[in-house]
Amino acid sequence: MDTLSKNNSYGVSKFDNFCSLLWHNHFKLAIDKIPSSDYQSEQYIRDSFYKGEWYESYDLLEFLANLKSNSFYIENEEFMFFCNEILEREFSGYRFIDNQISPITNRNEIEEIENAISQSGEFTALRGVNIHLKSALEKLSDKKSPDYRNSIKESISAIESVAKAISENPKDSLGGALDKIKGKIKLHASLERGFKQLYGYTSDSDGIRHALMDDHNCDFEDAKYMLVSSSSFINYLIVKANKAGVSLE
């Protein structure tokens, strides 16, 4: 807290500004409820972290990770890296992924998701992919009421979006898009069949997609598998499209 206590040119400390943001945007309390002394404010923050519900501690870490870098001398990437080291050391079932604390701990799986979100954010044509992936991760990562069913839906929508972007026809179904892109990016016939069987045609009432969507008892494992496998497939298609000279701008 020492760094945050330094006064700025207006006579208001960075810690005061930090508390204002924290009370208003995270604790959802009136700013006039901030304790009068820094010590009391620090104690309130400490108690909320150590004595609150388990998910409240993670929520506070997420809030800190999403503060603008340099605003309070908090470097987001370094902070999340440090947190992940501690979470791993303490055998936590959560890790930071794309500024969110998610119930995924395998480093390879985390890398696939982060790469898919990062790569899809670099191309204009993949904006929808990026939105769907982030939404799938958000719904999976909700610590109070995770929405596995709709996380699966968002993961599959991300696959549809990338396939449509490469096929250059937004009206295509997933199956139709895969039919068109297999020539462009040299998609092996066996892989094409496997992807179609895994994700199902959007119009196939017996397809996997509809089976998953109709099952209200979707579990974490279902949503996690679909997010990781979709992210991996998206990374694969982006690399293939780049090698084939397909524009995604």
DSSP helix fraction: 55-70%
Domain tally: 2
Number of strands: 2
> Total number of helical segments?
11
Shape annotation: elongated
Task: Characterise the protein shown here.
The protein has 249 residues and is an all-alpha fold. It folds into 2 domains: 1-92, no CATH class; 105-249. Helix content is 62%, strand content 2%.
Structural descriptors:
249 residues, 2 strands
List the helices and strands and how they pair.
Elements: H1 14-26, H2 38-50, H3 54-65, H4 76-89, E1 95-97, E2 100-102, H5 107-120, H6 127-141, H7 148-167, H8 174-184, H9 189-199, H10 208-214, H11 220-243
Antiparallel strand pairs: 1-2
Structure summary:
It contains 11 helices and 2 strands.
